[in-house]
Amino acid sequence: MSKDGVVSSAATYNIVATTGEDHVVTRTRNNYVVAPLAVQKVVTDGSDQIVCVGTAARMVERGRSADELQQVMVAAIIGGVDGPGGGHLSALISSQIDADKLDYLVRDAHHAGLEIGFDTDRLLARLEVLHVRTDNIDASAKELRERAEKDPNNAFYQIGIAASGFGSFEQMLIGRTFLYDRLYHHHKVRAAEAMAQRLMLIAERDRGTRFDLGEIFMPVGDDTMLRLLAGEVSHTGATLTSTKAAALAKGIINRELLHRAFAFRGRFIDSPPGLSAEIANDNRQVLWIRIVKELDGLAPRFELGQEIHDFALRSGQALINAGIDTQSMTDQVAFLEAVGPEQIIVDLPPLKAEAIRILARYPNGTLRIPEFSFNPAKWSAAYELQKRTGYVFCPREAVALVALASKIIFLGRYGVTMAKEADGYIKAAQTIEQSWLDALVAAQLIDRGAADHLSSKRFSLLAVRPEDLQVPDTWIKDEPDLAHLLAANIGKHLRGGLISDDISALGKVLSALFAFVDQWCSSGRITQDLPGEEVLQELLRQAFAMREISVAEGSVVGGGKLDLFVGDAILIENKFSGESSSPAKLAPAAGMQGRRYAISLDAQVVIVVVGYQPKPGGFFSKSKCVSVRSISALDRNRVEIRFMLPYGAVVPSSEKAD
User: Fold this and answer.
1) How far is it, in rounded angstroms, from Cα 483 to Cα 511?
2) How much of the chain is in helix, strand and coil states, percent to nearest 5?
């Protein structure tokens, strides 16, 4: 740039992209701008930041920052509808038939020795730029039809495929699926990718700043970039000094990948022997969704890796103190202390299969999303539970301790143990030595129940979580820990857990009861008389019926006549009492009475609703009217949940100080 601010040539700047409109995106020291290829006069603010450039002023008006302009560029590349135009061409860069996929699928299959046929030439020959109009788009493509209707011309362009190319496109979908199953999700590929991802994050963390575009896109190859991160070579364009990241980079360079210590998969989740296959699979589905949801993101997986690392150290020290495998444990503990949690990596591969989105032109001219015999979305749903596998990777020298810690942490966090098939899958020992478990119990790192689960002497179903209880926000405002306290106490008495259907039923029933109490408190029933137990039972029955929850009333079971059986899973006992200053002591045998019916009905949850008349000054807040109790020492997997329902209370103006 000359002193008078005139650009003598577009080549004065570093051209980083073209817009397709005879303009180039150029980069100065502090900014990105769009400029015409022709010589243009520019306006600067004296710091090499261009604030306006010819006809491209709309892109850089008021000195748009580099970050903002990068977002505009990215939106244009990936086909943002409100971009600068030509969005349909973005399908060549990012879509189900983009150039990258057509290149790497064929190349990877060839170099991996997998015999997968891709008819790329025929597929390319059948690609078309489709003119999408309101009169030719099928009604099933609702979003595309709405987009055409909103367009000023009632039409837009989109890359699609002719009907004669369906076979080649479906072949590509199947081949891509096969590659993910056999190649991209192979444990060694996952280990290398997880290490590469981790080392970049650690390098940024240790230097205190993220990599900028100039560093990410340095003109060096992948191998050189790894050697930069490993500290073997240096470059003026980047400052890299992380020893933790360097260790991971050297592992990739030297093909010393981290090893599998633990594998987790929906199908691997252990289930009590004798449970029907249908219920077992439903339980696994629920548990697996919980695990996947919690581990969705790098931060929670890093945190879990840290927790496993810390527990492995404590477990190793406990085994050393107990005189068990002393030398091996000493070596593993020392190694883990040296490498730190950075080399304990929890990995869960993403699911890449998605619903078909490409638009197709049929022989009659109609445009719509095609349907094939192979449906990638349905395949993905089946793959999720049956084959999607996560791993805990660690250095070979610490596999035994990390495997032990991983099993214990997964049991504690998610209430799951993996079947022996999971250990066989990673070629690991399929049992934990009983002496190890005894030492951990003695060190109070686990309890005897956890030890029994880890040795397959005890099994559990699904643990009830706070969110399963559907506690209203208004109740939590009164007691922020209410949901967690209730779930913890339920878990204490319901040690074997519930099946997924019963957890769902419990949530619906409790939601109805919370709403019932809300309505009771907001109406005048608090100060009104309650004639008796029969009236209370009828009001409860109506409340459940209004929410379309199935209710059985008055059935004769177990030698008696029950009150209510709700949602085919939850027993309701309702009791009635007069005035009381100690409502918590009312109806002490109600849970045991309900238990008799619960045993006959195979129910694990008894809900007792007690109507009582509070004395002045003894009126509970709503969060205090619900509690959890043990029913009997004879039951390790049955619980009572009690609701106290006040009636006949004095009016607010007559309340007394407590």
Assistant:
1) 12
2) 50, 15, 35
User: What ranges in 156-297 are assigned the alpha helix state H?
Assistant: 166-179, 187-207, 213-216, 222-229, 243-253, 277-294
- Nearest CA-CA partner of 622 in 426, 479, 449: 479
Give the C-alpha separation, 346 to 303, whole Å. 9
- What is the spatial distance between Cα 266 and Cα 283, in angstroms, rounded to a whole number? 10
| Buried/exposed code over 425-442 (b: 16+ C-beta within 10 A; e: otherwise) | bbebeeebeeebbebbbe
Are 35 and 54 contacting, i.e. CB atoms less than 8 angstroms apart?
A: yes
Tokens of 242: 């992380």
| Cα separation, 365 vs 136, whole angstroms | 7
- Tell me the pLDDT tens digit for each residue of 243-280: 999 999 999 999 999 999 999 999 999 988 888 999 99
**Counting beta carbons within 10 angstroms of the beta carbon of residue 354, is it exposed (0 to 12), middle (13 to 18) or buried (19 or more)?**
exposed
Q: Residue 130's closest CA among 293, 330, 367, 364?
A: 367
What class is the 85-184+356-377 domain? mainly alpha
Residue with tokens 């109009």: 133
Confidence of residue 437 (pLDDT cuts 50, 70, 90): very high
Asked if residues 615 and 651 have their Cβ atoms less than 8 Å apart, the reply is no
Instruction: Delimit the CATH 1.10.3210.10 region(s) of the chain.
Output: 85-184+356-377
Strand partners, 86: none
Q: What's the chain's length in residues?
A: 658
**Residue 57 confidence class, pLDDT cut points 50, 70, 90:** very low
